[in-house]
Amino acid sequence: MLAGGMEYRLVVTGLACLGALSGCAGAGRAGAGACARPQAFADAAIYNAAAQTNLVFDPFGRIEAGWAVYAPRLGRTVGTACPVGSPGFARAVARWQAAHQLDPHGGVDPATFEAIKTEWQDARPFVRLRKAGVCPDPPDEARLALVPPADSWRGAEVRLQPKAMRALKRMIAAARRADPRIAADPEAMTAFSGYRSPAYDAARCAAENNCEGLARAACSSHRTGLAVDLALGAAPGFNVDSSADANRLYQVNTPAYRWLVANARRFGFVNYAFEPWHWEWTGRRP
Ligand SMILES: [Zn+2]
Question: How far is the centre of ligand 1, averaged over its atoms, from the C-alpha of 275 (Å)?
Answer without folding.
Answer: 7
